[in-house]
TrEMBL record:
Pfam families, sorted: OCD_Mu_crystall (PF02423)
InterPro entries: NAD(P)-bd_dom_sf, ODC_Mu_crystall, ODC_N
Keywords: Lyase
Protein name: Ornithine cyclodeaminase
Molecular function in Gene Ontology: ornithine cyclodeaminase activity
Signal sequence bounds: none
E.C. number: 4.3.1.12
């Protein structure tokens, strides 16, 4: 048998690729358009909680993308909220890529940074199509790993005049604001509470880390015409939030309509978000099959739970760049 090799990209390799903001956004927008055109296969994520006494679980994401990417993938990502106490990221992940025609393994990638980058890119691409073009104020709740890429890639597209961030722990939000201020070259304000962060913002992103559902983001704070992007594992929004929305968009209805977790789980269960009230999946908007924002006065909600397709697309882009730059290791599989 001809020897089979897989490419292994560890965290240092991923960092050495120095993938650009534009490369990240292009990979994710391409995958969303493919999803909208029906050129992908996506299975709802699965959860594994090894120990009920531990505040953490694994997510298992599976999917495949057709030409020109031609890759199937499975990502396993741990989501352990208290890891900061051990000096560890809350989310650590492995992405496996396969040839969908033969099942042959192609690559193993450290997907911790991929998870953060692709989540931020989906937030940003969602805003590209659903936020007002003149959006200048961002209110961001949460300082988790994905939060940095939310703010960075949103600012790449909108060049905000004002960026406000908040998280539960003062040391976390202060260091988050300092890092963003340095990297973006503009002041980022650490806010003391949810209301001052959210009220009057053109784009509101809620990426909190709650232990249990709690309606901390109030519907009355939302500016008419704003885009609201909630994606916390536990719901932090009021049940009335969907009542003010002109359009509701999700990344994948199959994932959003069921499961244990999600920021709008109660809204689905109450029938406020359903196939009847859903405007579109984001991929349909990106592919031009359904309209995005049509007027400045539309208040729009975008809920994304995280797509295996985004992991696969960004992992593929990194793999191709690694080949060009001769980064990574070849491991003998068979």
């Amino acid at each position: 048998m001809t020897p089979i090799y897989v490419t292994y990209l560890n965290g240092l390799d991923i960092e050495a690729l120095a993938i650009t903001d534009d490369e990240i956004l292009q990979a994710i927008e391409t995958s969303l358009a493919a999803q909208g055109r029906g050129e992908t296969v996506i299975e709802p994520r699965m959860h594994l909680k090894p120990d009920p006494a531990v505040n953490g679980h694994f997510n298992v994401l599976r999917g495949a993308i057709g030409a020109p990417i031609n890759a199937a993938g499975v990502k396993v990502v741990g989501d352990y909220v208290d890891n900061y106490k051990r000096g560890l990221p809350s989310e650590m992940a492995i992405l496996n890529l396969f040839d969908p025609a033969t099942g042959m393994p192609k690559a193993i990638l450290d997907a911790t940074a991929i998870t953060d980058m692709r989540t931020g890119a989906v937030t940003a691409i969602g805003a590209k199509y659903l936020a007002r073009k003149g959006s200048k104020v961002l209110g961001h709740i949460g300082a988790r790993g994905t939060a940095y890429w939310n703010v960075r890639l949103l600012d790449k597209l909108f060049d905000f005049d004002e960026i406000r961030v908040h998280s539960r722990r003062p040391e976390s939000r202060d260091s988050f604001a300092e890092r963003l201020t340095q990297d973006l070259g503009k002041p980022v304000r650490a806010m003391a509470d949810w209301e001052s962060t959210v009220r009057g913002a053109d784009i509101v992103v809620e990426a909190s880390r709650l232990l249990q559902p709690e309606p901390l983001l109030k519907t009355g704070w939302i500016k008419p015409g704003a885009l609201v992007v909630p994606y916390g594992t536990m719901s932090a929004v009021e049940l009335s939030l969907t009542d003010i929305m002109a359009k509701m968009v999700v990344d994948d209805w199959g994932q959003c309509r069921g499961g244990q977790f999600g920021s709008l789980r109660a809204h689905v269960e109450a029938g406020k978000l359903s196939e009847a009230t859903l405007h579109a999946e984001l991929g349909q908007v990106v592919a031009g099959l359904k309209p995005g924002r049509q007027s400045d006065d539309e208040t729009i909600l975008f809920w994304h739970r995280g797509l295996s397709l985004s992991d696969i697309a960004l992992g593929h882009a990194m793999l191709e760049k690694a080949k060009r730059l001769e980064i990574g290791q070849r491991l003998r599989f068979a």
